[in-house]
Amino acid sequence: MCIATLSILYSFSIFKNSKNSLKTNTTNTTSTYTQELNFTIASPYPKVFEEAYVDSTLDFIVLGDWGFNANGTGRKHGDQVHVAFAMDNWAKKYNTSFIVNVGDHQGVKSIDDPKWKKNWLDVYKGRLSEIPWYSVAGNHDWYNNITAQVDYYWSRNNRFFLPSLFYVRTSVFGPEKTKVAWIHIDTSIFYYEYETLTKKNLLKSNLHNFGVHTSEAVEDRLNWIEENLAFQGDAKWIFVVGHHPLIGDCAKNRYMPRLLSLFEHYRINAYFGGHTHVLEYQHPKPSSPVAIFTSGAGSRSSGGCSGKDWGMPEGTLGFLHVKITSNSDEMSFEFVDATTYKAKVVYQGKINCTPIYYF
After folding, report:
1. Is residue 28 part of a domain?
2. Where are the alpha helices (DSSP H) in 198-278?
3. Strand partners of residue 349
4. I want to staple 179 with a disulfide (CB 3.0 to 4.6 A). Which of 222, 235, 256, 277 is the partner?
């Protein structure tokens, strides 16, 4: 939405000041974010996380489904190291501000699980180890100890940014104080039919234990999403981050059509997701003015969604790179094929902050 922004923030830093609190410092504002006493990870975080960047360009990488630390390409596992190597090169070249992590880190058992080191800290090095990873959870994260991922943020390493399964952040950048609003959501509660789930993993029991297995709970989260989309209407750019894809037939599961309708109604600029282990894109069109990106090829390959406008074939690994300039009405993006160490751009495009198509 191309309109004037109101937030005035100049510099940004985050640090831990206690086990369960996070302090954000800006030139004009100091805000402390605390894990509430009655907090459950499925409760939307009650405050907006605010960031500010001096640079006139906001640069970020979108990555999903990256926790399979194995060798070789194919339908099951890919080479996570190739993707990480290319991401670091891109991040250094473009001074990337953060990673948008769209879920499926492949799950952990606890905050001390060796996977934190083996699959994240030891793999994503260089610039990638210096910047925040703004995260959502995927189904594989629900299959394991989903609470441990939120606890890891609050008590161990807040670069892995997952304060709750639902939260809102804003990024203000450049001399124009351009505002970007981010709505981070958990799509597993919208995607799966609770009654049909089995006990082969912890997804069903986790949904039940956190009280998000009922239609009432789902409606509450849908209402929260709508309220925040409306509240962030002053942002020049509005993005939603989730795990499950919203391209073509993949958007037909359970409550996913309701999500897409909300995004279309509030004319968000883009939705970033993963889950299908591919790189795919659906461009804005008269029937849906939302740009939809799937970047789920961080370490695994599979087939994609029918109905896409563009996509790489099965066997491709890679990520999405995005850049927004403060004084521009356009967002540029490129999909990067990082199946081998010889990474290359395979698709480029731009979207406008005002959707071309309106209802």
Report:
1. no
2. 203-209, 215-231, 256-265
3. 333
4. 235
Q: Which residue range forms the structural domain that includes residue 80?
A: 51-352
pLDDT in tens, 292-306: 999 999 998 888 899
- d(CA 287, CA 308) in angstroms, rounded, equals 14
Question: Is 35 within the bounds of a domain?
Answer: no
**Type and span of the H or E element at 346:** strand 344-352
Measured CA to CA, the distance from residue 158 to residue 154 in angstroms comes to 6
Residue type, 306: S
- Domain CATH number, residue 231: 3.60.21.10
CA separation for the pair 314, 74 (Å, rounded): 8
Question: Residue 111's closest CA among 66, 159, 153, 140?
Answer: 153
Orientation angle between helical segments 215-231 and 256-265, nearest 10 degrees: 20
pLDDT at residue 28 above 70? no
Specify the number of domains making up the chain: 1
The β-bridge relationship of strands 48-53 and 13-18 is: unpaired
Mean pLDDT score of the chain, rounded to an integer?
87
Instruction: Pinpoint the alpha helices (H) of 252-357.
Output: 256-265
pLDDT mean over 104-124? 92
From 29, 33, 28, select the one nearest 17 (Cα to Cα): 33
Strand partners, 348: 334
User: Model-level pTM?
Assistant: 0.90
Is 6 a domain residue?
A: no
Please report, to the nearest 10 degrees, the dihedral formed by the alpha carbons of residues 220, 225, 226, 232 taken in order.
140
On whether residue 15 sits in a domain, the answer given is no
H/E segment holding residue 335: strand 330-337
Q: How far apart are CA 130 and CA 124, in angstroms?
A: 10
